[in-house]
Design goal:
globular, mainly alpha, 47% helix, 2 helices
Length: 59
């Protein structure tokens, strides 16, 4: 499986606000990715979710 590559040019006007809970260590890792790539935390979250959904094995 290909690894996720974080991109800094993805924006969408089609959004829904939702509250989720994320573990502290996971939050820190995502926040570091956002800072490293100079993009928003939400952008990283959305890319991770899209990657996961696109690579989900459905048996």
């Amino acid at each position: 499986m290909e690894k996720l590559v974080i991109k800094n040019n993805l924006k969408s006007n089609d959004t829904i606000t939702r509250t989720i809970r994320i573990g502290g260590k996971t939050f820190d890792r995502i926040n570091q990715l956002a800072e490293k790539n100079n993009i928003s935390f939400n952008s990283v979250i959305n890319q991770i979710i899209e990657y996961g959904l696109n690579n989900l094995r459905e048996d």
